[in-house]
From TrEMBL:
PROSITE patterns registered for this protein in UniProt: MSP
Gene3D superfamilies: Immunoglobulins
Name of the protein in question: MSP domain-containing protein
Start and end residues of each MSP domain: 1-115
Top-rank lineage group of the source organism: Eukaryota
PANTHER family noted in UniProt: MAJOR SPERM PROTEIN, MSP DOMAIN-CONTAINING PROTEIN
InterPro entries hit by this protein: Ig-like_fold (IPR013783), MSP_dom (IPR000535), PapD-like_sf (IPR008962), Sperm-specific_class_P (IPR051774)
Length: 115
């Protein structure tokens, strides 16, 4: 396995007093991917989409929003799994709690809130 899925930019510098950060989730492999975004801190962070599908070679927009709060070491985990081109339900590979597919894994994004 190489890099099947990445984030551009790969880090999220965001102020502790709140704000947004825009990113692209990039599919680098030869399979369509389903993804799920999980946060270590749902009290301060939210995203514009939790589940999604990314076609081969395409990108998806990810907007990370932070509410004001004390900065701490937080992160987002983007789990992914390969799916058939006919898949229309991005939640299906995650029904068991862990991604299921020929290719599966996760990418971690550190959330570095600064005061």
């Amino acid at each position: 396995m190489g890099v099947e899925l990445s984030l551009d930019p790969p880090v999220c510098p965001i102020q502790a007093n709140g704000g947004t950060s825009k990113h692209k989730i990039i599919n680098h492999c030869d399979k369509m991917l389903a993804y799920k975004v999980k946060s270590s801190n749902n009290s301060n962070y939210s995203v514009n989409t939790i589940y999604g599908l990314i076609q081969i070679g395409y990108t998806a927009d990810l907007i990370i929003t932070r509410k004001p709060g004390k900065p701490q070491a937080d992160r987002l985990v983007i789990q992914f799994a390969s799916v058939e081109q006919t898949c229309r339900d991005p939640k299906a590979p995650f029904a068991t709690g862990q991604p299921v597919g020929e290719l599966c894994g996760e990418t971690i994004i550190k959330l570095s809130a600064a005061e």
